[in-house]
Structures are given as C-alpha cells and as structure tokens.
Amino acid sequence: MDESTEHDTPTIEAPRKGWRISRRSAEEKAASAPTPAADPVDELTEPEGAPDEEVTKDQPTPRELAVAEAERHLDGPALTVPADAPSPADLEATWSDEVLDALEVLRADLGGRRTGLAISGGGSLGSFEAGVLRFLYDHAAIAPVAVAGNSAGGLNAAKLAEGDRPDGTRAIDEVERVWRSLRTTDDMWKPEPWLTRLQASASWASTWRGYLGDGTNGTNAVRMAVKVVGSLVRRPPETDGAIDAVREALTAQSLLSLTPVSDLLLRELDPGAVRRSGIDLRVGAVSLESGELRYITETGAIHDRHDRPTGLEDVPLAAGVLASASIPLAFPPVRLGDEHYVDGGAREILPIEVLVHHLEVERVIAVSASSVGVEPMDSFADRNLIDILRRVSAEIGPDETLRKELNPPGGWAETVRLVVPEFDVHDSMTIDPALIAISIDHGWLRAADLLLELAPEAQQLTRELTEVRIELRRLGGSLTTLFGGDALGRPSPVLVTGGTAKTPNEAPSAAEADRLVDGATGAVPDAGSEDEPLEPLDLEAETAAKRHALTAQLRHLVQARRDLGAPLPPSLVAWLRTPERDSATAPEAQPEPVQADEPIDTSA
Length: 604
Known about the structure:
single chain, 604 residues, 8% strand, globular
C-alpha cells in the first residue's frame, strides 16, 4: 500500500480503541521541516471535548509560571553546563595515571568489536541513563552497532540510533539536550480529564494524601495506578461529589494521557535518520492480544523476542517507541496494526538478551535507570487485597525481574558490563530540571566508578556529593509530585549516616534532619536557660545558612574527588573553578570542610 496515502493524516481514536500515531516519510519530513529535530513533524489532534486553554496577553499563563519557577532552581551549583566547560580531553588531563590506565583498558576492549547498548525503562529516571551514555560517548569512545531499549530507554535508544549528523551534531548531544529541555511534570505526565476532576474534588483530596503516606518512598506509575483503581472499586460513586468523573474512570483505560510523550516523539525523533544510520535498533513492547514481547526495529518492522520477523505490517517508528513507553494503567495501550501494545517492561526491563544472543554483538554495556531493591513496609496484617496486589505486581515483581536480568542463572559473561545506580535521585514520575541535572551527573559519575573500577573512596564521594546536591535542591522548596507528596522522598542518607549506607529503613524526624544540617556549619547554638526561651530563628536566614554550609560541603567533596585524580563531569569541574561567593553575601559563620572519610557526627 502506498504509505503516503495511508499515513498522511494523523489520527487518534478514543483511548479504549487504542492510541494511534501516524508516520510520514523522511522525504516529506525534509520538505516540511529543514531541521527535523527542532520542529514538530506532525500534528496530533486532541480527542473531542478537550478544553482549550485561555491565554491572556497581559498575564503569564500557568504553564509559563510553572516553567519560571522550575528554572529558578537551575541557579544552584553546577546545574547547567556553561559554553566554556572543559572538553573531554581537558577533563582527562586531570585524571590520575591509574585512572587513565583503566580508561585505556576499557577503550581497548571495546575498540574494534561489535558493541551494543541495552537501556532500561525508568520513566523520568531516564536522565540517569543520559549521564551514563555521555560518559561512554565522550570517554570510552563507544560506537554501538546495535541499541536496544524499553520505555524511557526506548526513547534514549531511538535518539542514539539516529547517529551523528553531517553538520557535526552528535547523537549523545541530542539525548542530553532532550532531557535538559524538560521543565515540568506535565512535559511527560499529564492526567486524563476525569482524573483532573477527581483531584480537584475535596472529598478525594484526603485519598490522594493517603496514597503518599503508606510508608513507600517516591512514586511508581504502576503502584499509583493500582491504588487509584482499588479506591474506585472500594468507593461507590454516590460517596463522592465528582460522580461523572468516577463513572468515566470505571470505563477508562489509563490515568494519564499519552499526548505529552507523543508530542515529544513527533518533535524530536527523526525516523529517516534512524534508518540511514546503519545502527540496529530494538525497542521492546508487549502485545496485549498475544501476550508476547516484540521488538520494533529501525525500519518499523516487528520482530519476536528471538529477533525473528513476525510478518506483521510495519509500523511508524515513533508509534513503536510510544508503545514501549505505555506503562500499563498509567498510560493507554497503543494500537500497532491490529493489536494493542504496552510498555516492554511488562516482560523485560533491561533488553540484554536480544543483543547477546540475536544481534551478534561482542560487547554489551547495560544501563539500568533504577536501583535494585524493594523498600520495607510496615505489617500487612490489616492490609486489603488491593494493597497486596500493588505490593506484589508493582514493586516485588518488577524488582525480581530486574534482578534476574542483571544477574541471570550462571551470570553474564565478562563481555557484559552493567551500570546501575545505588539510589534514585528522585522518583520516576517527576520532572524537575534541577533534579534532572543532578541525575545526569550522577549517571556520569556512576559510569566512571563502575566501568573504570575506581577505588571505594572515589565511589563514596560520588554518593556523598550527589546527596548533598539533592539536599540543596530541597532547600529551594518542596517538589510536589503529580499526585501530591514530596518527589525528593525522605531526608538525605548522607546527612543522616555520613553517606555510609543506602537510605535507612527508618526516616529521621524533620527536626533531627534539620539538626544534622545545622551541625554541618560547625556553629554551636546557644542553649539559653529554662527561664529564658530561645528566640525563634529567622527562617530565611536559617535557610541561607544551611545553603551556604551545604554549598561549602559540596565544594569540598568535589575538590576531594579531584585531588584523588578521579573523573568529574564538566558541570562540576566548571563550577569548581568559579570563585566562591563574596563573604558579604554569605553567613558570618564559615563552615569547616567535612572530610570525605569522616561521617557527620550524629551523637550530639
């Protein structure tokens, strides 16, 4: 069939019929958009009934206000990469001989061999993967012949599969640019209209708050979806004011709209460049009808999990990547041909197997966006079946799948290298430019630590400086998730344990966390007397003192890692060489540096 007549008109059917996205040929795209990655290549039509936003010329829109607030947090230390940031060669000139030797070993092992990249799902945590990939492209000189990804990893994989452009723009530059361009949670996670109405309902407000107060840390799309579905089952519509919204919810296929992700793909992905690059691409998705894991290739062909052609009709590449990102319940299924597809993570989180066994690569670097492990919870003695379902299907099950993929029976051969975070910078359903910047740097540092097998002292510094940066973002104001609650989770384990362990099972009280941060300044508070109570502190001055103390601590930790001759990302190196703020604008009490090998004293 002539593709130009079949796919010229973008269409979207009602969610229960499956989300659809259209394809246009590379020639059509080139004719309509001189710079394919910069401008939208297609227009999506919102479902009928979608309200139009009223724009007042004299006043900023809610979106503009939200973006301005998000960008305000980018004023923190090393959250942007300046134009004069050091080049990869300049960075390597500061590394120790031992580290450079390890880098040469890595380059020699990858060079001249067919190398593949496996990239996991992880929602907003795909920014961690962007940091890992930046290190690989800039320093390991990786040139993959094949890239496989699921969900957010599918987006990263598809962008890498475009290859470098004739004008000199590198694929890795495009991946990092996409992540750094995101500003608010609506850029990726947008509630369906019925869910927005429920969120606005006063009687449901306490329900949302209860979801975030069940002892878990952060937000997981499947976990939240199961909770919402369970609440709708338990609560009859008559008990809530938003009756129509509840009734619509009971027939809906998802909590969130795919429009933001679809728009992102249509704006950023260049299928023609992917086809021309010569890089094999595999993006995983699961068919609801057959239950099978399938891969969409660089040409839009559909292969089975053993990489054999299925004979099914080719699909637009953007639609395949969108299907891979369609987290069940959170997003509606995506229609590809006559079937409906969801996130490949339903069967496979990290697609290593297809690279090792079917694409004949000789070396694989696998990148996981999320850390392994399930957070302990209180007793389930009084929990209901929905709580148990959520715990097993949204937390324990996926964690076990990832564990087995990272370490299958017999293990992977030495030809497979793994890069996995020790902890998550933020939850998987939050977009915040400051946290994305921190997550990118964390991925870069983690890649250096693991791939170059750096000493424990350097890896300890990675943990500590990342956690201090998270605390600095926390001082800028709480970050509300899509469903309420704090996207930053519990207080920093670095400030609580000295960075010697992962997040503790028991979160310290807010007062204790504040005391630990205050202790970093080295100042001894005046206890006063029983007859003479302490005067309340000026909140703004107290926050400024904490920020100054944490910034000084961060500078010390970054310098300590540099003194070891260990790698640092360009953003931190550029920030380190900038002069400290004038003392006139800083608190009078100057903090003593916290030694990297000495945890903060918590005995006081």
